[in-house]
Automatic annotation (TrEMBL), chain A:
The keyword Magnesium does not apply. The keyword Hydrolase applies. Belongs to the glutaminase PdxT/SNO family. PANTHER family: PYRIDOXAL 5'-PHOSPHATE SYNTHASE SUBUNIT SNO (PTHR31559), PYRIDOXAL 5'-PHOSPHATE SYNTHASE SUBUNIT SNO1-RELATED (PTHR31559:SF0). It comes from Candidatus Argoarchaeum ethanivorans. Keywords: Glutamine amidotransferase, Hydrolase, Lyase, Pyridoxal phosphate. This is Pyridoxal 5'-phosphate synthase subunit PdxT. Pathway: Cofactor biosynthesis; pyridoxal 5'-phosphate biosynthesis. GO terms for molecular function: glutaminase activity; pyridoxal 5'-phosphate synthase (glutamine hydrolysing) activity. Its EC number is 4.3.3.6, 3.5.1.2. The active site is at C84, H179, E181. PROSITE patterns: GATASE_TYPE_1 (PS51273), PDXT_SNO_1 (PS01236), PDXT_SNO_2 (PS51130). It catalyses: L-glutamine + H2O = L-glutamate + NH4(+); aldehydo-D-ribose 5-phosphate + D-glyceraldehyde 3-phosphate + L-glutamine = pyridoxal 5'-phosphate + L-glutamate + phosphate + 3 H2O + H(+).
Automatic annotation (TrEMBL), chain B:
This is Pyridoxal 5'-phosphate synthase subunit PdxS. It catalyses: aldehydo-D-ribose 5-phosphate + D-glyceraldehyde 3-phosphate + L-glutamine = pyridoxal 5'-phosphate + L-glutamate + phosphate + 3 H2O + H(+). Residues 12-216 form the PdxS/SNZ N-terminal domain. Belongs to the PdxS/SNZ family. GO terms for biological process: amino acid metabolic process; pyridoxal phosphate biosynthetic process; pyridoxine biosynthetic process. Its EC number is 4.3.3.6. InterPro entries: Aldolase_TIM, PdxS/SNZ, PdxS/SNZ_N, RibuloseP-bd_barrel. It holds the Pfam family SOR_SNZ. It comes from Candidatus Argoarchaeum ethanivorans. PANTHER family: PYRIDOXAL 5'-PHOSPHATE SYNTHASE SUBUNIT SNZ1-RELATED (PTHR31829). PROSITE patterns: PDXS_SNZ_1 (PS01235), PDXS_SNZ_2 (PS51129). SUPFAM superfamilies: Ribulose-phoshate binding barrel. The keyword Electron transport does not apply.
Length: 201, 298
């Protein structure tokens, strides 16, 4: 199996590193490829969309023509892990800020997000939260993070910070408002790899 | 959820913010109209300034933090992060910038230094800092003071890329040279470069700086930006290069695309076509020593 990490901008190396470490732990010997241009995603079994600046990410994914390939991969039920800016790019609606910048969202996840919902960088925080598929709390790092303000009926809420939804799952797509790639805790990447394995079967 | 365990301004959060900028272009802007152009072009952040470095250089006098009203208007205009510059050592300017909601502070040699002995103690701030460096020792001293991101100093406001190239090659060369050193040689190297031994050992092991490292100072064309990326930096600051060019919209978009295609000459050829004249600039070799900015700070 091969996993594509969208490598346009942001936390690309951190996701690649986390995926490789998680693979080693699960004794999987698979490939992780950084993807900047079209033509590679159709041959991959899973896609990771990293954190970065969502305005930049969305604009360049469209410019490079990989937006359509990600939509196709989602239609084929290939597992996708999207964090922070990645989560925003998958949403159906991005609220006021996305409208203001005429952001080109992929609309793959039936959710609405609110960008920079917790404030500016000075308000960024880390906090242990509960995630539905993990037994013990996960230290979640929120950096100018979004939250999910509406979920469709096929979307399961998997993580909350207080009342706010910060993680959701729609079939094989996991969207997180925080950054699992910034910590050494590999459990989320391990869970994602399991999804890919089950899907490629 | 345990609210007592909620933490702001940790090293992880500060360095994490810098990591979000990787592979991106950060553009100098002096008003909200320019900030909008930068955001639409795909900049990952903007640097809010009173005047771009080329004009600061021309005007002379004491260059200070920008008017908070200008910075605030830029913050309200764009959704991407907004950075702003403080004078070297001017911790109160930095406190003001933090108070108005700036996302990252650049303790910058482009402004007139406020302290000739000490840089700001950046560990006491909630928001992260970026600082300039010309060599590895300087970069590690700044990281030791709490900088979450390093950029080359280059020679700001010139449109001449050679100083940014010099500083990048200097830093990467020094890091490469650490690879073959044993413990006692690393201790000697740390003493010689006046940097903490722990950071020298960490850098030797990682074979890169422990924080995100951008190129800045004199980058004026898509080819300049692509060259700096090929030299191994994580991203690009463009100062005067955008809004001192003939067509800022086109130049901004082209530099963003060049950073995403930095190793594809055919693409770079397309990207570089018909984008108007870059800023005129000045050869750094012809600038009198008293007007050189990169020697500010230590």
């Amino acid at each position: 199996m091969t996993i594509a990490v969208i490598a346009i901008q942001g936390n690309v190396e951190e996701h690649i590193h986390a995926l490789k470490e998680a693979m080693q732990k699960q004794k999987l010997d698979e490939k992780v490829v950084p993807v900047k241009h079209k033509g590679i995603i159709p041959y991959c079994d899973g896609i990771v969309l990293p954190g970065g600046e969502s305005t930049t990410l969305c604009r360049l994914m469209k410019h490079e023509g990989i937006d359509i390939e990600i939509i196709d991969a989602a239609k084929q039920n290939k597992p996708i892990l999207a964090t922070c800016a990645g989560l925003i790019s998958l949403a159906k609606s991005g609220g006021k800020q996305a409208q203001k910048t005429k952001q080109h969202l992929l609309g793959i996840m039936d959710i609405e997000v609110d960008r920079n919902t917790f404030g500016r960088q000075g308000d960024s925080f880390e906090v242990p939260i509960h995630i539905s598929f993990l037994n013990t709390p996960y230290n979640a790092v929120f950096i100018r993070a979004p939250k999910i303000v509406r979920v469709g009926k096929n979307v399961e809420v998997i993580a909350r910070f207080g009342e706010d939804i910060v993680g959701a799952k729609q079939q094989n797509i996991i969207g997180l408002a925080f950054h699992p790639e910034l910590t050494d805790d590999l459990r989320i990447h391990q869970y994602y790899l399991q999804l890919v394995q089950e899907n490629t079967g | 959820m345990d609210m007592e365990k909620l933490r702001h301004g940790t090293e992880l959060i500060k360095r994490g913010f810098a990591k979000m900028q990787k592979g991106g272009v950060i553009m100098d802007v002096t008003n909200k109209e320019q900030a909008r152009i930068a955001e639409e072009a795909g900049a990952v952040a903007v640097m809010a300034l009173q005047a771009v470095p080329a004009d600061i250089r021309k005007e002379g006098g004491v260059a200070r933090m920008a008017d908070p009203e200008i910075i605030k208007s830029i913050i309200d205009e764009v959704t991407i992060p907004v950075m702003a510059k403080t004078r070297i050592g001017h911790f109160v300017e930095a406190e003001i910038l933090q108070a108005i909601g700036v996302d990252m502070v650049d303790e910058s040699e482009v402004l007139t230094p406020a302290d000739e002995m000490y840089h700001i103690d950046k560990t006491g701030f909630t928001i992260p800092f970026v600082c300039g460096a010309r060599n590895l020792g300087e970069a590690l001293r700044r990281i030791n003071e709490g900088a979450a991101m390093i950029r080359t100093k280059g020679e700001a406001g010139t449109g001449d890329v050679k100083e940014a190239v010099r500083h990048t090659k200097q830093i990467t060369g020094e890091i490469r040279a650490l690879a073959s050193k044993n413990k006692e040689e690393l201790i000697k190297a740390a003493r010689e470069m006046e940097a903490p031994i722990e950071l020298v050992v960490e850098t030797a092991k990682l074979q890169r700086l422990p924080v995100v490292n951008f190129a800045a100072g004199g980058i004026a064309t898509p080819a300049d930006a692509a060259m700096m990326m090929q030299l191994g930096v994580d991203g690009i600051f463009v100062g005067s290069g955008i809004f001192k060019s003939e067509n800022p919209e086109k130049m901004a978009k082209s530099i963003v695309e060049a950073v995403n295609n930095y190793d594809k000459p055919e693409m770079l050829a397309e990207i570089s076509k018909g984008i108007g004249n870059p800023m005129k600039g000045v050869d750094t070799a012809t600038i009198p020593e008293s007007e050189i900015l990169q020697t500010r700070g230590w």
